Amino acid sequence: QVQLQESGPGLVKPSETLSLTCTVSDYSISSGYYWGWIRQPPGKGLEWLGSIYHSGSTYDNPSHKSRVTISVDTSKNQFSLTLSSVTAADTAVYYCATYNNYGYYFEYWGQGTLVTVSS
Amino acid sequence: QSVLTQPPSVSGAPGQRVTISCTGSSSNIGAGYDVHWYQQLPGTAPKLLIYGNINRPSGVPDRFSGSKSGTSASLAITGLQAEDEADYYCQSSDSMSGSVFGGGTKLTVL
Predict the structure, then answer these.
(1) Which residues of B touch A105 (CB under 8 A)?
(2) How distant, in Å, are the alpha carbons of A10, B38, B60, B75 from that of B55?
(3) Which of B50, B55, B82, B89 is most solvent-facing, going by the fewest CB within 10 Å?
(4) pLDDT tens digit string along A77-113?
């Protein structure tokens, strides 16, 4: 079974850039899934941010397209999220997940990491 | 607000049957995209519960079932148990927005 683990700073200042990495274990990132980022503000629902294939092809949420960058490093079996110009509204638990691109669903999830935007 | 609409909360007594609705539009569920459901227990990551409208991943009890019709979908839980108390989310694809989620439904077991 695919294992995913998010990592990155838990606190980011307003107007700065949020950067997170998802490390994939027990599965090669080049083997077939798309890889996605989803976030959940405290007490609120889930929001998809974007997905990437191992080739680097991305699939973005139009609502955040100008601020979100997703990249993949197949040599490290990792993929990453950067979100620029953050505000308090970007405070959330950020999850990485596998995206089954045949069925269009998120099959395996990381445990999530809380990122707080505050000065 | 969310592209997919779910009731904020539902409740039921142990052993009962509850359903959670997920209403979309002609750009998502009504366009033929599949609906998927996730269970999020308190303090944990979401877990895939139903995929492709009706399919259960290995390990998910058959007390959980999904259906889809027109621009809506439903999740049914029979034989309600205390451990089913969680938040439930539907998800689909949208021709304009990509992957979209419902706002979530909190299930309370009375």
Answers:
(1) 34, 36, 48, 51-52, 91
(2) 36, 12, 10, 11
(3) B82
(4) 999 999 999 999 999 999 999 998 888 999 999 999 9
